[in-house]
Amino acid sequence: MAVCIAVIAKENYPLYIRSVPTQNKLKFHYTVHTSLDVVEEKVSTVGKSLGDQRELYLGLLYPTEDYKVYGYVTNSKVKFVIVVDSSNTSLRDNEIRSMFRKLHNSFTDVMCNPFHNPGDPIQSKAFDGIVSGMMVQTG
Amino acid sequence: MSVPDYMQSAEDHQTVLVVVQPVGIVPEDQFFKIYKRIATVSQVSIRDSQRLLYIRYRHHYLPENNEWGDFQTHRKVVGLIAITTCGSAKEWSQTAERFHGQKEVYSSTLYDSRLLVFGLQGEIAEQQRTDVAFYPSFEDCSDVEKRVEDFVESIFIVLESKRLDRATDKSGDKIPLLCVPFEKKDFVGLDTDSRHYKKRCQGRMRKHVGDLCLQAGMLQDALVHYHMSVELLRGVNDFLWLGAALEGLCSASVIFHYPGGTAGKAPGRKLSMSQAADAGKRHRPGAQEVLIDPGALTANGISADTSTEIGRAKNCLSPEDIIEKYKEAISYYGKYKNAGVIELEACVKAVRVLAIQKRAREASDFLQNAVYINLGQLSEEEKIQRYSILSELYELIGFHRKSAFFKRVAAMQCVAPTIPEPGWRACYKLLLETLPGYSLSLDPKDFSKGTHRGWAAVQMRLLHELVYASRRMGNPGLSVRHLSFLLQTMLDFLSDQEKKEVTQSLENYTSKCPGGMEVITLPDGLKLPPVPFTKLPIVRSVKLLNLPVSLRPHKVKELLGHNMSTASPFIYSPIIMHNRGEERCKKIDFQWVQGDVCEVQLMVYNPMPYELRVENMGLLTSGVEFESLPAALSLPAESGLYPVTLVGAPRTAGNITVNGYHTSVFGVTSDCLLEGLPAVKTTGCLVEVIPSLPRLQLSTSLPRSVHPPQPMSKEELSSTVSVQLFNGETQQLTITLENIGSEDIETLELTSKIVTSKQSVSLLLHKVQNFYVRLKKEFASIYSFIQFLPNGISVTGLPISSPLRQVLKPRPENKPVSSEPGKAEYSHIKTLEAVLNFKYSGGAGKVEGYYRELSLGVHVDVEPSVFFTRVSTLPATSTRQCYLLLDIFNPTEHELTVCAKNNQDLVLHASECQRMAIQVDKFDFESLPQPDQETARFTNPKQLQEERQHAQGCQINSKLGICWSIISFQRLQRKASVEGVLNQLVLEHLQLAPLQWDVMVNEKPCDCDVIADCKVGEAVTLEVKLTNLSKNSVGPLALTVVPYQDYQNGVQNYDLEDAVTFIGSNTFYINTVKPKDSAVCVGALLFLYTGDFYLNIKFQDDSAGRELPLAWFTLPSVHIKALDVPLQAGA
Question: A Pfam family for this UniProt protein (chain A) (predicted)?
Fold first, then answer.
């Protein structure tokens, strides 16, 4: 279902980015990179109004001609971005949410690995597996 | 209308559009000079009404756009200022014609026009015309601004009249239908009398009046008109104009809310609140039926009339509503394909408002919408403009990444393949502007902190594009710089294939334009710092190396102490200077020498998947003049740590700091400073360079051993000579010293040291000392020789002997001499090691108190040759002699011959033991030189004793002259030593007694085998002489002479009373003999028969000699042959 899944560090550099192999990788890099503007904007406005408790799921960041970009920010300001095909109209918001939740759980597992250095690119196979699962399912 | 004005903002709705154009031939620069002056008159305060009129100037405006003037009056060209040059009166008519022609273009909308004529003087210029102003030249036109103001005022009058004219139109009158160009054909044949149509006309007219009010500075009136228009148009579903009315409402509200403007461009828009309020108050008399007082905010902030508050709140949109209405308006515009430009411009305006409101997300929605507005076929230039403006707007709302994205798209558009002349320069410029958006700086220093974190894929793409653009721009230097940067900073992200490609293209570029370390400054002032290749190769550690052992300078001790005292007055201080992190500045505790080649070892690593050629790699230093000798190296692919030694020679003395290194890789020279490389390990980079010293080169006649078999001592040796010898063998070693330095040697000192087995030391040492003496003697002559020839050679010989000593203790007597187990014991190899030290100094270094030391290690492996397993003595016939019995063992595998002085050779087979008897004279050890008082006092007695024993041993050795030779080796004769096996007892036997006994028979000395002849019947004199050579006096002594006959069958006959008679007593008496004195006693014998007689001289009373060794009292036995007297003699 997803065509690109990215994990972005607090400092806004990619920790993990994976896209469907059939399409230009660089394009997704650009898409995810520019989506950070919206993420930052959303986070900064939300942070002001709600203080501590806030929704991690940011919803649709922006639609492009071909894709829809969804965002999710953890409390430690790590961002998840999922890009889905615009043509995929069957996808509900709840499904996107559950994808993010799954991603977040898996990411937490990666962080729990004592040998993982936070801030380093994610190379966990388990995480990779989860991501592949999300990308393949209906795609 | 196809060309959008992206610069538009909401407040442009209140401006009147004036076109300023050149007519005829006007120099461009002059035109723009005048244009700028005109443009400064952007707001004019109208004298009577105190209202402000805002003017927008354009030097280029499409008449096509002008046609939309009814739709939004700020699009209408109401004024024209033509600028022309006119040299003479003759040209005037032509110029005037042209001006009229120009006017024709905008004739439908123009309120007024002006012509500024430059260069015309004379009659025509004299005439007063309102629409023409004459100036003699472009410089001499001080009242241009004034003229423009007048012109604006005249426009205002027209505007105001139009406004009043339209505003007072009663609904009963026939109101014309205002149309946009594309609508015109739609309304053909429409029922003009229908209520619907009338409403439409009314609504549109209201909107138009609103526009005019807004332009005329009557904001509140404008709001009212817009509101009414919205109501009217909503009713008739006239969406395009409804949109326009809504937009007008928004614009008016924006102008009200944000008097500072939304475009952020106009510094001239300095409208303060009070001014605006004033303006509002003043125009109250002219206000319309639904009168709303806009002067709610007065200068002091107090408003008495509450109704105005309500009115204002009702008419003016709140900031949130503005956006809502904009959205609505845009959605209406969106219904019309031909209103794309209007829609786009509305989006841009809304975005500007949202940017002021800091509602970036909603602004991005507007922009997102703007991206999709299709304006039909756009020219490439328009596309670029559109993307640039999108980028700017994204920047405005803080979406830097989006902004960068669109800027990059714009850049790519500049060089789209469809463009016949690609604008590489523009492309490059735009690409540079995208850098911050991708958080990429072109300073490699920003990337030196740890691993790179960023959007590598995107950044790499951008850098590639920069490289390509700069190359196409025809600036290879720039592309080299960008490519170097790409290689240096993105190395970790490049695939092997990419690495190859990047380096190949880099090499291509550098072949035309080598990369250097200079800062490249771009025309727009951007500085591109140099990119040193600190990763090609990666340097892991930098280590300054000490000079080789033989060249290390040493400080003379006294001077060292002096030096330390100057360094700090404290021997110890608990206060440690804060020099943590200053590790690099730490001084290294060795010195380099001026003029001598120094080495720095770098551990380098090639991260490339192929061989890396590094050329011209050298050191960067500061402090002293340093001659770097660059090296070229080739590192294999993905090499591990690879040591590289960089060399150079300091040319002056002082402190030198190694700051870094320089390389040339792929044609790019880089200076890599260590301070920028935190990953590099170093033990310090500051080292002292001392003044130059001479250099001695040492060569030896014997081959040098590369590796000493074992560390000889703690100190390192410059070279080692290794020799293998048999015990007793002699080897000549010639040491050649050559001064290969540039300085004269002024002093040379030689010392030696024995490292192993103290026992075997002394001889070698002794020899070396001899050598030293000899060298010293020679040195004077060498010295003068060196004076003239710095490379003089001194040659000296040094005989090295393995000790002539038997190192093994004598074997116990009772052991079988040739027993097999003994063999192993003898066959082990003994190792001797010695070190010769040459200290030398000269030149400037000597003045500073430095010297150099050259040390030669001598390693001798001694193989056993002959062993004396047992030694004993047998008395010889003479008291002055004795037999030395040596059990000689041959531990070698060769056949040996052993010979002693005047003895025949003894052949020994391998592992054979034989006894050899040598007759030797006894030794007079007293005659050996005694150690002088001075040395005797300071050396311990034991050592003294050893010394003496050694001297004795030497004497015995030289007397014996025992030599051996291995027959199969054809070697010369070797000496063997018995010294070690001589025990005290044997020594005593060998020693010549200090009491010397001489026996004379018939005044002939009689000893041993000498047979004294005498005649029967004749008296034989017997004289015994005692010489005392000992230190004590001896005696008194009594001697008894006992004659006997030896039958040679073991029977000795002492009963000779009738055969021998003594004349006088047979007992001699010797009185006390003082040292160095002698005593003689004389007696006589008479032999009565012929025969062989022996005389045994015995001590009668040995009480006196008891304290002296018995050996001292051995007297020779006397053999006398008594012969018959011839008859005639007897007769």
Answer: Sedlin_N
Q: What is the C-alpha separation between B94 and B147, in angstroms, rounded?
A: 23
Q: Please check whether residue B495 lies inside any domain of the structure.
A: no
For chain A positions 15-34, those within 8 Å of chain B (CB to CB) are 25-26, 29-30, 33-34
Residues 6+ apart with CB under 8 A from B474: none
Shared domain check, B813 and B942: no
Q: Which tokens belong to B772?
A: 């030293």
State the nearest Cα–Cα gap between A28 and chain B, in angstroms: 10
CA-nearest of B642, B646, B641 to B626 is B646
| Residues B199-245 pLDDT 10s | 888 888 888 888 888 888 888 888 888 888 888 888 888 888 899 99
- Tell me the CATH number at B605: 2.60.120
How far apart (Å, rounded) are the C-alpha atoms in residues B537 and B541? 12
The answer to whether the CB of B82 falls within 8 A of the CB of B102 is yes
Distance from CA of B373 to the nearest CA of A (A): 12
Q: Interface pTM (ipTM) of the complex?
A: 0.89
The beta-carbon neighbor of B458 closest among A33, A40, A119 is: A33
Reading the block at residue B69, the tokens are 């003037």
Reply yes or no on whether the pLDDT at B829 is more than 70: no
Residue type, B1050: G
Range in A42-56, B154-168, B663-677 with the lowest mean pLDDT:
A42-56
Judged by CB atoms closer than 8 Å, whether chains meet at B401 and A26 is answered as no
What span, in angstroms and rounded, lies between the C-alpha atoms of A101 and A118?
20
B438 contact residues in A (CB cutoff 8 A): 33
For B660, the domain range is: 532-690
Instruction: Return the C-alpha torsion angle B460, B461, B463, B464, nearest 10.
Output: 120
Average pLDDT, integer, range B425-435: 87
Picking from A23, A30, A22, the residue whose alpha carbon sits closest to that of residue A6 is A30
Dihedral sign for Cα atoms in the order B167, B172, B174, B175: positive
d(CA B674, CA B659) in angstroms, rounded, equals: 6
pLDDT at A108: 92
DSSP one-letter string for B269-320 = ----HHHHHHHHHHTGGG--SS----TTS-TTS----HHHHHHHHHHSPPHH
Supply the pLDDT for residue B516. 80
Whether B121 shows a pLDDT value over 80: the answer reads no
The answer on B420 and B369 residing in a single domain is: no
Across the interface, do B453 and A62 touch by the CB < 8 Å criterion?
A: no
Burial of B791 (0-12, 13-18, 19+ CB in 10 A): exposed
Selected residues 38-97 of chain A with any CB under 8 Å from a CB in chain B: 38, 40-42, 45, 62-63, 65
pLDDT band at B476 (very low <50, low <70, confident <90, very high): confident
Nearest to B855 by CA among B548, B558, B545, B546: B548
CB contact A14 to B (< 8 Å): yes
Question: Same domain for B371 and B382?
Answer: no
Number of domains in chain A: 1
Q: Tell me, what amino acid is at B886?
A: L
